């Protein structure tokens, strides 16, 4: 531009020199110099306008092309010499006529102001997509009258496409987008934000102010301070009020836009409604807390193993059953405290559950307590699956049956003793009849007259031994019967003295049952007991 200004100054100086010498005609050298300057200036201007990336053209008032630059020539794919003098409409597609009507209405205003600027949409022949030009038009004056128009247009088609994409994206986003001013005016929102807050249209929402939606003013001031202090805030939780009065929880991502002086002119950002997510999280936490409390109160030991036989979860009942803390148990290997005889069965069952060959199984395993004693644990094995149904672990619920096993053994022993008692009762009843006959016969023979002393002594001995056998049978019968619930101090005292004189617990139990029956089965003769009965 400086060179062109210098050429114009040189040309003006030469013209003034020629005007001052009107009396003398210019020499041929002077004319050659003038033509060289004009040609050089024209070529310089041609090079200058051809270097513009923007479209530049000069038109007459009736629309004929007087001059164009190379950008316009390339745009319409026509050489420069074929453009001059042609109507501009020869290169435009025919439309509905709205453009011509708009130009007819706008021309009087242009003639008055002698300039115009705006965005024009044109369709060129041979081009499918329309073009958008940001144009500036000026009137060309001659002797105070307009005789032409110069137009400088910048191709903003790509920018308009980007704006259209942005607008489409702005309108179709599921997240709420907003632009607000520092004083609380809502400049623009997308339809998603209007729906999120329960408004029928975004125009209805634009009539509101931020304090009507963001009711917690202290929180709003904190958010404003954070946005102004940081380049952008992300994931800030805020609470907004909908049209119907209900509250929603949103994640706010916002940034401040500043002017050249650094003052905040607006805030813009995006909102995501996480009210349902927070409700789901609350319910999930409630369910997890319920499950945790349920597991803590469950009497069985709960273990969760992964596919590598490592503990993922150990219930607190482990401390009570095996003596280990949860942290200590999670560092142990599965089967590390199991009895060597039970370990192969446990590992085999674990592998079957992981492989999917079994869906449920029970196994009793002996596990060593932390103090060293063995505990019998009855474990139930079941698979743990992910959301796709793939097995990702094994759940074990174990119940300590050590005391139960001991009670079962005692019950078995008691059943054996009961069976033995029934057998003894049967034997006693079988012996009762012959003993009765022996006692009766010896009683009669002993009292018969004419019996010698030797026979009498043998009958006396037989009678005593028979009664002794009868007493033993009586004791067996009493032992096989249920004990009487009635007791008296005298019986208790007698039982204590009898137990003290016995040599074993079986004798004490026999005597206790015998003395609790007041009447024997066999009749006892009156009189002083014999020495043999006292010794028993």
Short description:
With 536 residues, the protein is α+β, with helices and mostly antiparallel strands.
Q: What order do the helices and strands come in, and which of them pair?
A:
Blueprint: H1 2-20, H2 28-50, E1 55-59, E2 65-68, H3 70-76, H4 98-113, E3 115-122, E4 131-142, E5 145-155, H5 157-172, E6 176-180, E7 186-189, H6 191-196, H7 202-206, H8 210-213, H9 217-229, E8 233-241, E9 247-258, E10 264-273, H10 275-297, E11 301-306, E12 311-314, H11 317-322, H12 326-330, H13 343-355, E13 361-368, E14 374-385, E15 391-400, H14 402-447, H15 453-480, H16 489-501, H17 505-515, H18 531-535
Antiparallel strand pairs: 1-2, 1-5, 3-4, 4-5, 6-7, 6-10, 8-9, 9-10, 11-12, 11-15, 13-14, 14-15
Helix pairs in contact: 1-2, 14-15, 15-17, 16-17
């Amino acid at each position: 531009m400086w060179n062109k200004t210098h050429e114009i100054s040189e040309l003006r100086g030469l013209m003034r020199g020629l005007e001052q010498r009107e009396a003398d005609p210019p020499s041929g050298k002077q004319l050659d110099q003038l033509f060289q300057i004009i040609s050089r200036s024209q070529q310089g201007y041609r090079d200058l306008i051809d270097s513009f990336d923007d479209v530049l053209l000069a038109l007459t008032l009736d629309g004929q092309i007087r001059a164009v630059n190379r950008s316009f020539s390339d745009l319409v794919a026509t050489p420069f010499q074929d453009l001059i003098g042609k109507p501009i409409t020869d290169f435009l597609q025919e439309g509905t006529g709205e453009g011509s009507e708009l130009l007819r209405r706008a021309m009087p205003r242009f003639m008055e102001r002698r300039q115009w600027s705006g965005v024009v949409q044109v369709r060129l022949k041979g081009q499918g997509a329309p073009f958008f030009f940001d144009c500036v038009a000026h009137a060309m004056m001659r002797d105070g009258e307009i005789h032409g128009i110069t137009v400088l247009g910048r191709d903003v088609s790509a920018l308009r496409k980007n704006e259209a994409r942005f607008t489409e994206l702005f309108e179709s986003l599921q997240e709420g987008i907003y632009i607000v001013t520092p004083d609380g005016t809502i400049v623009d929102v997308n339809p998603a934000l209007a729906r999120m807050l329960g408004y029928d249209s975004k125009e209805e929402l634009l009539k509101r102010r931020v304090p009507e939606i963001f009711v917690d003013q202290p929180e709003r001031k904190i958010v404003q301070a954070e946005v102004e202090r940081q380049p952008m805030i992300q994931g800030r939780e805020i609470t907004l009020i909908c049209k119907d009065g209900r509250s929603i929880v949103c994640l706010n991502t916002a940034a401040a836009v500043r002017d050249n002086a650094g003052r905040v002119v607006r805030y813009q950002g995006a909102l995501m409604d996480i009210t349902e997510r927070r409700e789901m999280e609350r319910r999930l936490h409630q369910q997890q807390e319920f499950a945790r409390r349920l597991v803590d109160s469950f009497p069985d030991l709960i273990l969760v193993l992964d596919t590598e036989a490592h503990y993922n979860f150990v219930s607190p009942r482990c401390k009570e059953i095996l003596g280990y803390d949860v942290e200590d148990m999670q560092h142990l290997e599965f089967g590390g405290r199991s009895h060597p005889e039970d370990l192969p069965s446990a590992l085999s069952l674990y592998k079957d559950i992981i492989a999917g060959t079994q869906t449920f199984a029970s196994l009793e395993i002996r596990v060593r307590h932390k103090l060293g004693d063995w505990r019998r644990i009855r474990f139930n094995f079941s698979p743990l699956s992910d959301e796709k149904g793939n097995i990702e672990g094994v759940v074990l619920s174990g119940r300590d049956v050590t005391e139960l096993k001991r009670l079962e053994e005692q019950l078995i022993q008691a059943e054996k003793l009961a069976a033995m008692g029934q057998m003894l009762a049967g034997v006693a009843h079988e012996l009762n009849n012959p003993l009765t006959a022996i006692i009766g016969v010896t009683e009669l023979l002993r009292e018969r007259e004419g019996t010698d002393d030797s026979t009498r002594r043998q009958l006396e001995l037989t009678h005593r031994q028979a009664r002794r056998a009868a007493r033993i049978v009586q004791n067996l019968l009493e032992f096989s019967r249920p004990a009487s619930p009635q007791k008296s101090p005298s019986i208790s005292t007698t039982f204590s003295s009898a137990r003290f004189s016995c040599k074993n617990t079986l004798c004490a139990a026999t005597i206790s049952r015998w003395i609790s029956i007041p009447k024997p089965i066999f009749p006892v003769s009156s009189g002083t007991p014999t020495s043999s009965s006292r010794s028993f």
